[in-house]
Amino acid sequence: MRRFLTGSVLVVFTLLVVMPLLWVLWSSLKAGDRILAEPWAFPKKLHWENYSNAWTTAGIGQTFLNSLVATVGTLVFLLPICAMAAYVLAKYPFKGSKLVQTIFMGQMMFPTFLVIVPLFFLLRDLHLYNNMPGLIVVYTAYSLSFTIFVLGGFFQALPNELMEAAMIDGCTHSGTFWKVMMPLVRPGLTVVGIFVGIGLWNEYNLALVLMTSPENRTLPLGIANLTMTQQYQSDWGALFAGLVIVMLPVLLIYWIFRDRIHQAMLAGAVKG
Amino acid sequence: MDRRGRTAFIVSFLAPAGLLYAVFVLWPFVQAIQFSMYRWRGLSMIRRFVGAENFVKLGKDDVFWQAVGHNLWLLVVGGLFVIVVSVAIAHAMRGGGTVSKLLRSVHLFPQVISLVAVAVMWQFVFNPQGLLNGALRAIGLGTLAQTWLGDPKWSLSAVGVAFVWYVAGFYIMLFAAGIQSIPADVFEAAELDGSRGFHRFRNLTWPLLWSVKRVAVAYLVINVLNIFALVYLMTRGGPDRKSEIMLTYLYEQAFVNSQFGYATAMAMGNFIVILLLSSLVLFAFRKDPTARRA
Hints:
The structure holds two protein chains of two kinds. By secondary structure, chain A is mainly alpha-helical. Chain A has 15 helices and no strands. In chain A, about 75% of the residues lie in helices and about 0% in strands. In chain A, helix 4 crosses helix 8 (about 145-155) and helix 4 runs antiparallel to helix 11 (about 185-200). The relative contact order of chain A is 0.15. In chain B, helix 13 (about 245-255) runs antiparallel to helix 14. In chain B, strands 1-2 form a two-stranded antiparallel sheet. Chain B has helices spanning about 5-35, 55-60, 60-95, 100-105, 110, 115-125, 130-140, 155-180, 185-190, 195-210, 210-225, 230-235, 245-255, 260-285, 290-294, and strands at about 40, 50. In chain B, a hairpin with an 8-residue loop joins strand 1 and strand 2 (about 50). Chain B has one domain: MetI-like (MetI-like fold, Orthogonal Bundle), CATH 1.10.3720.10. Chains A and B meet through helix 1, helix 2, helix 4, helix 5 and helix 6 of A and helix 1, helix 3, helix 4, helix 5 and helix 6 of B.
């Protein structure tokens, strides 16, 4: 009886989690005007054209590329500069290094909305407002704290003897880092890269404030905009296809790396 | 090792991250404190130092306090819901079995997908012709159908449901890890003493989850007070400001009304509420009750 009860609670909850997602998936293949007319009905015919409509007519393709550039572009800068900083902070103690480390963690303590107005004006003054380089710079800056924090843990775990041996073999400080230490923290770079990458792919608040022209919109902005423009046509096929397009890559990556993402989330939550 | 080479190395390796951080994180932070004390409207560069004027105005702004109230309502009611659901599910998942294996792999789905997708999806669930009303009509409860998001009585609760759906997985993960870290022999000993079922949960599992509860409540404070996109996209704070929360009001003041000084003061207010509530949480959980017994 008790096992039956727990079992049914779990089944109901699993359905609650998965059902809305499956509904989006099957609705994305329905005729646009049927999505709200018969919300529970399965598609009679598979309307794959919703996806091509979303990609080209509704402009989701452009926003998809923008998001890809923003996410990958940020990671390309973020990972090396954070690895460098985390390495020095973990392995080269100097006077005040603890303080520097604390300051670097500061960004995780305050909400981004606290600085949204000053940031908006700063980017305008630097001509980084409403363009991709600006968004990448901001995304990089606001991912520093977390990335340095996680990578610091990985560098700390490497034995000092490795460094010393490399130096005796004639490596310079930076040679030791690039040739010996950096390859050893590859698992850490993967985890933090995936984790931060997912967050950037989904990021909405900063992009909303900093990217205003239609051609600069990232995917979440594009989706949000579609809900407004499609309203007048009550043709929701392209919007639902867009929802699948924004969710699917992240779910796939999550599925492949779920154990490691799990560990990273727990480590971050319990230590942070 | 060569001393001078070492210093140059440290500086050069810290410089890229340090510069970005100083210019784009620390400097705006300092400016936020400054801006909150200026009267500054529109895109003109005319700003006037007015000291605490914005904060005094904030104190008398009914909409702001209404928004704070909505945030707190979401924190207490939504938070309670999240804790109960996630503890129950984490506890039920403990046994293993096919369903809990399946759930273990999907429970974080809502957490990893875009919040915009979550908001749009729930907008359609609560649409007058949407999934929820469709279900109510199908089972003959059509009279219960509502406009949900368009109804001042329901809009905040509807947003709350979407919020719980979005975050629950994270808290299930926290509590599942907490339950897993309780040694098996503790349960065995309880079993021998005849303690099982709800009795065992109340007297053993729940108190032993102390540190996880602390983390969970602290995260809830931060999570709820940072809600923006969900409300902004689902209701715009409406109807009639009945689902307005701090950050949607802030966004409106800054980027619709161009009240930049006032909006920054509001951001400070939001930050101060977060600091106060999280210190309260840390204070409430300052002593580990299980440590005393051991």
